[in-house]
Specification:
DECR2-like; globular; 7-stranded parallel beta sheet; about 50% helix; binds hexanoyl-coenzyme A; about 15% strand; alpha/beta; NADP; 11 helices; Rossmann fold
Length: about 290
């Protein structure tokens, strides 16, 4: 689909890039010649992912331990990256956190656990990178990963739905504000692309839910779920040098699922107290190292 050296000379930071969708996008961009910087909370995970990118693609790949919930840590990491490696050419806002819960059961900390990562943390990184680009009069490109819920809302993941809608608004707002400075901002709204991180927290195997993946596949107009290759290809298209007029867009990548089936998780309306207790337990055990 792409010229093999399309990304030569590009330096891209991917937040939460050690696993899941972030790593899938990293693999595609590395395979096309980009220098990749991965950041995540667990240094061992991002280091292993960077080593894999080197081994598989001969890519220049670097790992940074970073919790994007800390604005000070974000600022320091961006400054260090600029100083030690040079200016970024693109940023992929991929880091996220989520779990399913009845909204009335959420604690304040539970709400913050999601919104501090997705809503606030993504802003801190975007602002820190944007400031560098603006101060040095450099062009740049931001790609944020949202979800089709920005259009439909989503029951049982309200902190995520609110936060991702905020990122969609950030994308559109900054496209206009920073466009004249040569900084493009776009987003991908993926449908179901199974990853271990998301499945363990959003689709725990509970009564009535065992066939959830199979059903979503059958209901999808393309009769399949998404893959890392799908999102890698779209990310590579959106960020491609030469794609300079694509700005302020949130592109849905779901095989037409949202058009056909609308909001996710409506089946959880049927869950009782026991199902919710088990879902929480399974999600929390997914957090154990
Ligand atoms: C209810 C929960 C909970 C759960 C945590 N909490 N998990 N409440 N149900 N399943 C509550 C805790 O009880 C606590 O509140 C508060 O949240 C903070 O919990 P911590 O474990 O201390 O949080 P933390 O270590 O910061 O972990 C953040 C996390 C975790 C978001 C909870 O899941 C995580 O690190 N996730 C990162 C990876 C991830 O989520 N990937 C999936 C992304 S999918 P109290 O009151 O008890 O102190 C996605 C959208 C995909 O983003 C869309 C696909 C269609």
């Amino acid at each position: 689909m792409f010229q093999p050296d399309l990304y030569a000379g590009q330096r891209i930071l991917i937040t939460g890039g050690g696993t899941g969708l972030g790593l899938a996008m990293a693999r595609k961009l590395a395979s096309l010649g980009a220098e990749i910087h991965l950041c995540g909370r667990r240094l061992d995970v991002v280091e292993a992912a960077a080593a894999q990118l080197k081994a598989d693609f001969g890519a220049a790949a670097f790992a940074h331990a970073l919790d994007i919930r800390s604005p000070e840590a974000v600022q320091q990491t961006i400054e260090d990256l600029w100083q030690n490696h040079g200016p970024l050419t693109a940023l992929v806002n991929n880091a996220a956190g989520n779990f399913v819960s009845r909204t009335e059961d959420l604690s304040v900390n539970g709400f913050h656990a999601i919104s501090d990562i997705v809503f606030r943390g993504t802003f801190y990184v975007t602002q820190a990178v944007g400031r560098q680009w603006i101060a040095q009069r450099l062009p740049g490109a931001v790609l944020s990963i949202v979800v089709t819920w920005v259009d439909t809302g989503a029951p049982f993941v309200v902190p995520s739905a609110m936060s991702k809608a905020g990122l969609d608004a950030m994308t559109k707002s900054l496209a206009v504000e920073w466009g004249p400075k040569g900084i493009r901002c776009n987003a991908i709204a993926p449908g179901v692309i199974p990853t271990q991180g998301a499945s363990s927290r959003l689709r725990p195997g509970i009564q009535g839910n065992e066939d959830s993946a199979a059903r979503r596949q059958a209901d999808n107009p393309m009769r399949r779920l998404g893959t890392g290759e799908d999102i890698g290809n779209l990310a590579a298209f959106i960020l491609a040098p030469g794609n300079g007029w694509l700005n302020g867009q949130t592109i849905t990548l779901d095989g037409g699922d949202a058009l056909a089936n609308g909001a996710y998780f409506t089946e959880y309306q049927r869950w009782g107290d026991e199902d919710w207790a088990r879902a929480k337990q399974q999600a929390i055990s997914a957090n154990q190292p």
